[in-house]
Design a protein that fits this description.
The complex is a heterodimer.
Chain A lengths: L17 E4 L2 E6 L2 E8 L4 H10 L10 E2 L5 E6 L2 E7 H4 L2 H9 L3 E5 L4 E7 L3 H5 L14 E7 L2 E9 L2 E7 L3 H14 L2
Antiparallel strand pairs in A: 1-2, 2-8, 3-6, 3-7, 4-5, 5-6, 8-11, 9-10, 10-11
Chain B lengths: L17 E5 L2 E5 L5 H7 L6 E2 L6 E2 L12 E4 L6 E5 L9 E5 L13 H4 L8 H5 L6 H13 L14 E13 L3 H12 L4 E4 L15 E2 L2 E2 H13 L4 E4 L2 E6 L4 E6 L15 E13 L3 E3 L12 E3 H9 L8 E6 L2 H12 L3 E7 L12 E3 L2 E6 L6 E5 L5 E5 L2 E5 L2 E3 L12 E3 L4 E3 L8 E3 L9 H18 L33 E3 L4 E2 H9 L5 H8 L12 H12 L3 H4 L13 H5 L11 E2 L3 H6 L3 E5 L2 E6 L8 H14 L2 E4 L4 E6 L3 H8 L11 E8 L5 E11 L2 E6 L4 H15 L6 E4 L4 E7 L3 H6 L16 E6 L2 E6 L8 E7 L3 H12 L5 E2 L2 H11 L45 E8 L11 E3 L12 E9 L4 E9 L8 E6 L6 E8 L14
Parallel strand pairs in B: 1-7, 8-9, 8-15, 9-12, 15-28, 17-24, 18-19, 18-24, 19-20, 31-33, 34-44
Antiparallel strand pairs in B: 1-2, 3-4, 5-6, 5-7, 10-11, 13-14, 14-15, 16-25, 21-22, 22-23, 26-27, 29-30, 32-33, 34-40, 35-38, 35-39, 36-37, 37-38, 40-43, 41-42, 42-43, 45-48, 45-50, 46-49, 47-48, 49-50
Helix pairs in contact in B: 5-6, 5-9, 7-8, 10-11, 10-12, 16-21
The chains are: A alpha+beta, B alpha+beta.
């Protein structure tokens, strides 16, 4: 729909970054739309019903659930970040407003963040130098807010070898630099 | 030099030879050596000069408690001062130099201080350098700094990296001696997550230094086997070379891991050290004990060392410090040194035992009831003088003397929350008291359980107890048999008599005489004793000296040692490099950098960037031929006012505020009203703090019935969001309001100037004529089909819009705007031009929003609505805030257009002296206005609104001599005061 305009990733490049550092892989995701959904006061049941109707699973505290096309993770009481493929859901806020009506407050968040998918066998060794999350102990599907080198981030453990990090878009380069430097120090 | 003092045995790898230098001379050692053990093996006992008297000193200990053997380790930028030779792991190519000596270690000119010692007793500085007062900074301090001190800094930047990290465990075991290994084995076998940390590079603690057996194995072999078993457990993390330096709240401990200190240069990418924060459920301190000396005359000679250290050098490192040695002890443990050394073939000349009676050591001259009363040998011990029980004195030729006054449990970490250790008569030392860090218990010698069997047993018991508290069942395995000799000690703190100095604190040159002087001058409390004599200060924090000093003071006051007490133990346990505390936060990586959506484009243009918080913003964008920043900024301002200018304003905070109570919520947080704002409109809002001072300002747009978008200043984007969350969650939890920051989600550009609309009309898909989109309009629109937001707001005073698109399109939009603006000679302007235009327009910004100014001060008093309640409204009306003669925002122009203004200058009436009473206020912001062709400024002037048209002086009191400019006080709205342009 926005054909005349080109896009840049959070790192300022036309295409997303893909880095392989030893056993680690850092994959910038530019193909995911993101929006916040917050329950309006007293409308929990309506939001729950609307979510069910739209097949959007809204998980409990500190959890992430994946489904097609909607994934979601909990960010605060009665508030979630909901993901969907960018190609089909670029205007994700409109989709969600249609689903939830006036029962929830929806805000487009896609470009407020950089999403980095980390994978590798020894992720705890990497993440323990970056964040105070006890990655080795938390279950798959754990989602939390944490600090990485002074930057507030969301961290989601998808499996023992896969982690997603959402960091603020404007400081994407600083975040990637921290991950890259730490990964290299472990080689 | 050959390793002339190397004897058989020890845990060193003799198959490899390591070369190193000390003070430029070459030596050799083996893997497993410390710098101290290698130097001692090479016959070097003299390793440093003392702090105050420049006395020759050698190592006292074999561990981190070392007060004497401090060296500069490495050279060049990697040189580290005050490194303990007793802990520095030897590596090939190591270089070390002695400190605090000139011209050389053997001949030190400042050893003259030692001759003048009668002048330099405790309190000397306090008494001597008080007068004249003016001499302190310029004369006394530089001299003292040069004469005293430990190692020197190179003043070069540290080339190494440091890292930090976070670890989690059920049980942290601090120390890997018998107690720690026993605790870790117990917990590890139970499946608990265990971290075992030890400052040494070889785990085992004293087991590596002793000869007695555990079960069928030697202590060292048992330790090695235990470590091997623990290494196989996936639930156990072994951290050698890691010192737990502090206990903090909620079971958090800090640890410094020396990742690369045992190699010449860290491997590429590897940190030198890592500072770990360890989150624990429970912790066991198994940090062992530190031996203490007995003070006697000249007991600081190189070669006089702790008895346990003397046998550690023999047993662990295969080093006999001297060919003829003696032992001076008041307890049973000291005798082990004599028997071990004798077994190694070293000539043990005598054991001087202060205790009377009991068994005599077989085959060794064991003098009961005797004392060492003096030591000789300036650069190294040559003989000691012994006074026997019958009073007869005798001189014994020895090269080394092992001294044992007993062992002090390393209670430090148990006291990091200010818990006081308690006195234990049985071992004549302090043990951990109650009220230490929750979840921390002590085991082994750290808890006063001094035998090997007791260490194993208490380590196991404390691990079982600690894990039981967190629901993990651990069982007591059979312990290996081990020595369980009870402590036998008769307290002996110092040898009385003699005219010379008997040293207590070797690092700070504190003697028994100094403690006596402190007592004489009534500095008897331990805290006063410490400050008056410097006992227990500096890098070793009195690990070998505190208890002795306290005991000597107790003897003088007649108080018990228990009642005399200890000073407060604080983190860190051992010195921590500043680099480790900084981690990766240094240089360009000190803080993150935030980039605007137009950054790439601006960088291509050669923009000059300025730091605004974490953001980098274009300050101005020079064009070819422009040689000064003023040329660029003037051009940007004039072109904007003449035609159109574009500015990236993404950094302003944006907060989505939604919910059925969003309008009512804004009415409470803003001093003016927003619930009545029509959908599709913006309004300037003023936010006060609770105390009535202005907190922040910005425009807020109503995008829907229950949907607002607030903008904040760049500086307060986070604090305003935090404030709103506090209001929502804490003050008014019943309001239906949801908040989220969208600052980064949208790339937002200001398009300002008479041709702003014409430019935007080329891009946007909707009618934005004045009729369709009037001043203060707000709408969701599309730009060539892309969803966007448009606001008709102005900071510059021009006809202006702010247009926002999802950030990924921000680069495309700035390029599209520039392209569309080409026919209008559009410019992109930076923060300097923005500043010029806002001062010309009289808008307040950071310099005026200084946290001490009210709406009334800013000339915005009418914005504080009295028709409703809002945060800060009541207190904005309090006494002193409504003074009609208080500060008011004014404009300032020099009378002479060539006159220069300086921000921070003060207003004075003509002829008034520059005194506080005459101070009329100050210039807050100053710019050069290319529009007016002169400097202009904003300022806060007392009763300023009544002084428009008045002539005053702006005096810059910071210039030397002060400068002043005659100024006219004018309206703060220099430019288009009626606002005709922005409504155009």
């Amino acid at each position: 729909m926005a054909e005349p305009f080109h896009t840049l990733t959070a790192l300022g490049h036309p295409t997303p970054e893909l880095m392989e550092i030893g056993p680690y892989r850092i994959n910038e995701r530019f193909d995911v739309a993101l929006a916040s959904v917050a329950v309006r006061r007293g409308r929990e049941a309506d939001v729950s019903a609307a979510a069910t109707a739209a097949s959007i699973a809204l998980p409990g505290p500190a959890r992430w659930v994946a489904a097609d096309p909607w994934s979601a993770f909990w960010v605060a009481p009665d508030m979630w970040f909901v993901e969907a493929p960018f190609a089909t859901h670029e205007d994700i806020a409109s989709h969600l407003k249609s689903a939830f009506g006036d029962a929830a407050s929806v805000s487009e968040q896609t470009d407020a963040w950089i999403r980095l998918d980390l994978s590798g066998q020894a992720l705890p060794a990497l993440l323990e130098r970056l964040s105070n999350v006890d990655l080795a102990q938390v279950p798959d599907g754990f989602a939390t807010r944490t600090m990485i080198e002074h930057l507030g981030c969301y961290l989601i453990r998808k499996s023992a070898t896969e982690v997603t990090i959402y960091g603020a878009r404007s400081s994407a380069a600083s975040l990637l630099h921290a991950l890259e430097t730490t990964a290299k120090s472990l080689l | 030099m050959s390793q002339s003092n190397r004897i058989a045995g020890g845990q060193i790898d003799r198959s490899q030879t390591l070369r190193f230098t000390f003070d430029g001379l070459p030596y050799s050692g083996h893997p497993g050596d410390t710098l101290a053990s290698a130097l001692l093996a090479n016959g070097v006992r003299l390793m440093g000069r003392s702090f105050k008297y420049h006395r020759p000193r050698g190592p006292l200990s074999a561990g981190s408690e070392e007060p004497n053997a401090l060296v500069h380790l490495r050279s060049g930028a990697r040189q580290e001062p005050n490194t303990r030779a007793t802990g520095a792991e030897l590596f090939d190519g190591l270089t070390a130099t002695s400190q605090n000596a000139w011209p050389s270690l053997r001949f030190d000119a400042l050893a003259i201080n030692d001759r003048l010692n009668t002048f330099f007793t405790a309190g000397f500085y306090y008494k001597t350098f008080m007068w004249p007062k003016s001499f302190w900074e310029k004369v006394y301090e530089p001299i003292i700094r040069r004469a005293a001190g430990l190692g020197a800094l190179t003043r070069e930047e540290d080339p190494d990296d440091y890292d930090k990290g976070f670890l989690h465990c059920d049980l942290l075991v601090i120390g890997a001696g018998p107690a720690g290994l026993s605790a870790a084995l117990t917990a590890g076998r139970a499946g608990a997550r265990v971290i075992l940390a030890d400052e040494d590079f070889r785990m085992g603690g004293r087991l590596n230094c002793e000869t007695f057996a555990l079960g069928d194995a030697t202590g060292a072999d048992w330790a090695a086997a235990s470590v091997a078993e623990l290494r196989q457990m996936p639930n156990v993390r072994l951290m050698a070379r890691t010192t737990i330096v502090g206990a903090f709240d909620h079971g958090i401990y800090s640890a410094v891991e020396r990742v690369s200190d045992h190699v010449a240069i860290p491997a590429p990418g590897k940190p030198r050290q890592t500072l770990w924060r360890i989150y624990t459920k429970r912790a066991v301190l198994a940090g062992g004990a530190t031996e203490r000396p007995i003070a006697f005359e000249n007991n600081d000679r190189p070669g006089v060392m702790l008895a346990g250290a003397l046998r550690a050098y023999a047993n662990r490192w295969g080093v006999a410090v001297g060919d003829r040695v003696a032992v001076f002890t008041n307890n049973e443990d000291g005798l082990r040194t004599a028997t071990d050394l004798q077994a190694k073939g070293v000539d043990v000349v005598a054991v001087i035992d202060t205790r009377q009676g009991g068994d005599l050591l077989p085959g060794i001259r064991h003098l009961k009831g005797a004392e060492v009363i003096d030591a000789s040998g300036k650069l190294g011990l040559t003989s000691i003088t012994v006074r026997q029980a019958n009073g007869k004195t005798e001189t014994l030729r020895v090269a080394a003397l092992g001294v044992s006054g007993g062992w002090n449990p390393n209670v430090n970490i148990t006291s990091h929350h200010r818990s006081k250790p308690v006195w234990d008569e049985g071992i004549q030392s302090f043990i951990p008291g109650t009220g230490g860090p929750p979840g921390l218990t002590a085991a082994g010698a750290a808890a006063g359980a001094m035998s090997t069997h007791a260490a194993l047993a208490t380590g196991q018991a404390q691990a079982i107890a600690a894990l039981g508290e967190i629901g993990i069942a651990a069982k007591a395995d059979t312990l290996p048999s081990a020595e369980d000799v009870p402590v036998s000690i008769i307290p002996k703190w110092y040898v009385a008599g003699g005219k010379g100095r008997a040293w207590i604190d070797l690092q700070n040159d504190v003697t028994v005489k100094d403690v006596k002087l402190a007592h004489q001058e009534n500095f008897t409390s331990v805290e006063h004793l410490k400050r008056y004599t410097t006992l227990g200060m500096a890098t070793d924090q009195g690990k070998t000296s505190n208890v002795v000093g306290i005991a000597v003071m107790a003897g003088l006051t007649g108080q018990t040692i228990a009642d005399t007490g200890t000073t407060i133990y604080r983190p860190p346990y051992t010195p921590v490099a500043m680099g480790a505390l900084a981690g990766r936060s240094r240089g360009k990586e000190f803080k993150p950098v935030r980039l605007t959506p137009s950054h790439k484009w601006a960088a291509e243009q050669g923009a000059v960037f300025v730091e605004v918080g974490y953001w980098l913003r274009a300050q101005w964008l020079p064009r070819p031929g422009e040689t000064t920043w003023r040329e660029s900024v003037d051009r940007e301002v004039l072109a904007t006012r003449k035609s159109v200018g574009i500015c990236d304003v993404t950094t302003l905070g944006k907060i989505d505020i939604q919910g059925t109570d969003a309008g009512a919520f804004l009415d409470r947080v803003y001093s003016n009203t927003f619930s009545t704002l029509p959908v599709g409109k913006c309004r300037y809002g003023l936010m006060l703090r609770e105390d009535g001072m202005v907190f922040d300002d910005g425009t807020t747009a109503r995008m829907g019935e229950h949907e607002y978008v607030m903008t904040t200043t760049t500086a307060n984007a986070v604090t305003v969001f935090r404030h709103l969350e506090y209001c929502r969650q804490v003050l008014w939890p019943d309001m239906d309001v949801q908040l989220i920051s969208t600052t980064e989600a949208w790339a937002q550009y200001s398009v300002a100037g008479p041709n702003a609309r014409k430019l935007l009309e080329k891009l946007v898909d909707q009618d934005i004529s004045d009729a369709a989109f009037p001043y203060m309009g707000a709408a969701s629109i599309t730009v060539r089909g892309l969803r966007a937001r448009l606001f008709r707001i102005s900071f510059s005073g021009e006809l202006a819009f702010e247009i926002a698109v999802p950030t990924r399109y921000g680069d495309a939009l700035i390029r599209a705007l520039v392209e569309a603006g080409r026919e209008f000679h559009a410019v992109v302007y930076g923060t300097e031009a923005l500043g010029v235009m806002r001062v010309e327009k009289g808008h307040v910004a950071g310099n005026e929003l200084n946290g001490q100014s009210s709406a009334l001060n800013m000339g915005l008093g009418k914005m504080v609505s009295k028709k409703k309640d809002s945060i800060g409204m009541v207190l904005s009306q309090r006494e002193g805030m409504t003074n009609p003669d208080g500060y008011r925002l004014v404009g300032v122009k020099p009378v002479d257009p060539a006159g220069k203004l300086t921000a921070g200058s003060h207003f004075l009436e003509t002829g008034a002296a520059p005194t506080m009473e005459n101070d009329g206020g100050w210039l807050t912001s100053k710019v050069y206005s290319p529009h007016l062709g002169c400097d202009i400024a904003l300022g806060y002037l007392k009763a300023g609104d009544q002084k428009i048209g008045k002539r005053m002086r702006a005096v810059n009191l910071l210039a030397k001599p002060p400068t002043e400019t005659e100024v006219d006080i004018v309206s703060p709205h220099f430019f288009d005061p009626e606002g005709g342009r922005l409504r155009g």
